Amino acid sequence: MIKFSGIKIFVGAVNVPSLGQWFTLPVSPSRVTQVLTEKGAIGAGTGNEEIKISDYEAPFPS
What are phi and psi of 30, to 5 degrees? Predict the structure, then answer.
C-alpha cells in the first residue's frame, strides 16, 4: 500500500511551468486551482488555463 505522506507534486501552468507551486499529497484540485490563481500562474488575463504536474518527490524509488 502506498501512503501519501511525504509525496509532493509540482503543479504549474502548461505554457509557463515555472509559475507553479509544490503541494503535499493529498491535495484537492480546487485547492491547487485556488493557489495557482492567487499566485497569478493561471486565471483570467494570464493566457494560462491548463495546468500539469511537471515534477514530483516521493520517499520511494520511481
Answer: -65, -35
pLDDT digits (tens, 9 = 90+) for 1-27: 556 678 999 999 888 888 899 999 999
DSSP state of 38: H
Length of the chain counted residue by residue = 62
Cell numbers standing for residue 47: 493566457
Q: 501519501: which residue's cell? A: 4
- Going across the sheet that includes 8-13, the strands are 20-24, 8-13, 51-57
Cβ count near 51 (within 10 Å): 20
In this predicted model, what pLDDT tens digit does every residue of 24-46 receive, in sequence order?
999 999 999 999 999 888 887 77
